[in-house]
Amino acid sequence: MTRLAGRALRVTILLGESDTWHHRPLYAEIVHRAHEAGLAGASVFRGVEGFGASSLVHTTRLLSLSEDLPVAIVIVDTEDRVRDFLPQLDALVTEGLVILDDCEVIRYVGREGRA
Prior knowledge:
With about 120 residues, the protein is of the alpha+beta class. The protein has helices at about 25-35, 80-90; strands at about 5-15, 20, 25, 40-45, 50, 60, 70-75, 95-105. The longest helix is centred in the last third of the chain and has 14 residues, at about 80-90. The chain is globular and about 40 Å long.
């Protein structure tokens, strides 16, 4: 199990739910690659409304736009590991926003009995 405590770096990737990488959801590709890279963890959050650089508002309230809701992928690990992963994000994220934040890990514990 990866140990993580104290100072860390959080990368947040904001993109559209319909964004793909080789016919696969882009968010799933990013999570898969983060796992392969041995990062401490990654989570995907689906938004209910938002807009980005295109200034087009995507919302669950309009059926015509509900298929491309905003998605946020959050990854936290040591600064070195996150920065080593950034070139993969650079290749994958052609539209969207990638943000880095310093953070402090207070608790990082997995469930007992799971690999």
